[in-house]
Amino acid sequence: MTLRRRTLFTVAAFFPLVGVARADDVMDARHIIDEAAITVERVRAAQKSSADMDDLLKRSKGVMVIPSYYKAGFILGGGYGDGVLLQRQSESAFGDPVFYRMTSGSIGLQAGMQSAEIVFMILTEKGLEAVLNDEFKFGANVGISVGSVGAGAEASTTTNVGKDIVAYSANAGLFAGGALEGAVIKPRKDWNAAVYGRGNDEPRVIVRRSQLKPAQNLKDVLAKNIYPAKSGL
């Protein structure tokens, strides 16, 4: 059996609805799920107080993780990154991940390139509904307030009190100058269809399910940070 056939066989074992034509999409999606679990741990470790992040995680209605958000340009700039959204189903359980892409464009004095890992804590039903809509634009969705926390900063500040969404990053400089302003989050319909199959790929349908085996590690990481395992006596 060739390496490609073995890879497709492995993909099919985890995602039985996948056709050969979509195998590359599924492998990319699986990679994002794995990276999202690593990102949650890394962003948490970068904070001045992980307890602040854990507290918001306990109260969150959903969590979106962007493992790699790239911003680059000179004068005309832009950014993009793929990620996943998980909705809380119970106190310590999350549903299956929906795949999203975040993009942005900007004009101004800028140069170089940077990459950042971002974890969005969605703290209200209003915020979750806004993200579950077909397109969410930071700064443009009326009534949705967004806060941000860079590495080494405290989340429990007055600037983040009452926010619908709070964005955490392991990059302290990512949010300088309102970097999220104008960024757009939209579902990756190609990946959602490839992983879940046509007819089962709507974000509102996916987040209520809990059947995707490759997502279990990410769910366990989120649950662990909410309710850490107690050490034995």
Relevant terms:
7 helices; alpha+beta; 9 strands; 233 residues
What report would you give on this structure?
With 233 residues, the protein is an alpha+beta fold. 33% of the residues lie in helices and 28% in strands. The protein has helices at residues 3-14, 23-46, 50-59, 125-132, 189-196, 203-206, 216-226; strands spanning 62-74, 76-90, 93-94, 98-107, 113-122, 136-137, 146-149, 165-169, 184-187. Strands 1, 2, 3, 4, 5, 6, 7, 8 and 9 form a nine-stranded mixed β-sheet that branches. α2 (23-46) packs across α5. The radius of gyration is 18 Å and the shape is globular.
* End-to-end separation: 50 Å
Q: Return Rg in Å.
A: 18 Å
Average pLDDT works out at 79
Number of individual domains: 1
Q: Which range best describes the helical content: under 10%, 10-25%, 25-40%, 40-55%, 55-70% or over 70%?
A: 25-40%
Number of helices: 7
The tally of strands reads 9
| Unreliable runs | 1-14, 16-21, 107-111
**What class do helices, strands and sheet pairing give?**
alpha+beta
Fraction of residues in β-strands? 25-35%
- SSE sequence, one letter per element: HHHEEEEEHEEEEHHH
Major pleated sheet:
9 strands, mixed
Shape: globular
